[in-house]
Each structure stands twice: as C-alpha cells, then as structure tokens.
Amino acid sequence: MKALFPLALALAAAPGVHAADCRVPAHRELVIESMIRRQAPAFTQGLAFVDGALLESAGAYLAPSTINRIDPRDGSVKQLLPTPESAYGEGLARFGKRLYQLTWLDGKVFVYDVKTLALRKTLALPLSEGWGIAALPDALVLSDGTSRLTFVDPETFAPRRSIEVHDTEGSISRLNELEYSRGRIYANIWHEKRILEILPESGCVASSIDLVPLLQALGPSDRGLIEKDPENVANGIAFDPDSRSFYITGKNWPVIFKARILPDPV
Predict the structure, then answer these.
(1) What is the C-alpha separation between 7 and 147, in angstroms, rounded?
(2) Considering the domain boundaries, does residue 111 fall inside one?
(3) Percent helix, strand and coil across the chain, each to the nearest 5
(4) What is the total count of domains within the chain?
(5) Domain that holds residue 91
(6) What is the per-residue pLDDT across 43-58, written as a single tens digit (0 to 9) for each?
(7) Cβ atoms within 10 Å, residue 241
(8) pTM
(9) C-alpha to C-alpha distance for 31 and 242, rounded to whole angstroms
C-alpha cells in the first residue's frame, strides 16, 4: 500500500502550461495480442522490457523486495534478486547499460548492470517518495505520486526540470508507473483503470487508454484474484520497440498482457 499523498499535491500548477492550454485528450484502444500467465504473481511496482526479457521491480516490506527477470514466452522467473538494504522497491527503467530502481521511502536509487543485475552504485533520490521511472533519450523522468513529473540527469539524478500533468479539466495526481515510447510518456494512475499518454514538453495529456477491456478478457477466477484486494491495481507498462507492443500488468495480477495501443501516435 502507498503512503498518504505527499504535501506537494496541494501545490499550485507550475507557471507556464495550464489546463486551458491543453487539447481534449483523445481515446485510444488496446488490442490484446496475447496473455502471458505468470507462474509467480508479484506486487508489481515497475516493469521494463530489456533484451527480450521483462524486468520487474516487486515491492514488499514483510518479505524482500525483488527484481525479477521474466521470460515473456511462458511467464517464468529466470532470475530473482533481492533489493539491497531491505529497501522497498518501486519504479524500474533501463538507460544505456544501467538499470535504475527507485525506492519508495528510503530516499535511494539503486543502479545495476543491465546484463548481470550486479549493483554498481547507489544514488540519492531527489524526491520525498519514489514511484515510477522511465528513460527518455537524454534523461530519466520520475513520478512521486503527485501530479508532477521530474526530469533528472541519469548520472547524478540532479533535477533538470519538472512538468505538471494536465488535461482540460486540470492537473492529474497519483501518477505511478511510467514508460516512454516514441515521444510520449505513459503513466498508470494509482487506483484508476486507465493509462495516460503525456506530452513531455508541456505535461498535457494527449490521450487516455482504458484498461477495463483487459480485465474483461480474463476469466472469472482471474478477475476474482485481482478484485479480492483493492490494492491489486493496474501498475506496469513496458514497451518493446521491435514489436511495437506494450506489456501491461498490475499488482498481483496472474497475467501480463501483450497489447497494441491504437491508433499509433502521430
């Protein structure tokens, strides 16, 4: 479970782009290509597609948080690595030869070798909480559960700039797991069944993607497993640039969906 929202939620929108400057978000659809049944569901906090495998950051306090290397062909875990210092693992992203894992309340970022998952260094998290992370071509972008996204230097994690995420109704908070693809940032919203597609220059929401069809595609037993705990929310977005497909899942979900988001962004 997440903590109470940080005080930053009460802050006014940053000067510059405001809700009135954004267009009404488009609606894009998910087309399911396949469903990958997980052999060991986890409390997914971050998801990344790296060299043909899915890497997952799974959070926990009662048991160790882990990074899991998942085979997308059959959902099996090929490698499991406990998070250092018993820290609560959160968002996960690859940048170059490094894999970055946020921690929730521990104030740290763990940096691993992307091939071996050997820990290379630990950086200070410049936010009060770590939620989601995604890699842009020249920066990393972080969420902290507010409506703000912060762009940081990959080497030092020094903040470069931030944006307030808006649609035409105003700012949108509880931004969680992040992914970047083809000039757009994709974000889960904690406790909502949709993904936002965000313009990184302005923070405007370009489109909203409904996740309800994913749950409707499941059988009653799988839906029951998800719905028995209100914290089993949608959380996990990874993009495969070769197939142009997204991998989408949630906390303790028994499956990972491989899907296309249509139409493609222009």
Answers:
(1) 11
(2) yes
(3) 10, 50, 45
(4) 1
(5) 38-262
(6) 999 999 999 999 999 9
(7) 9
(8) 0.92
(9) 17
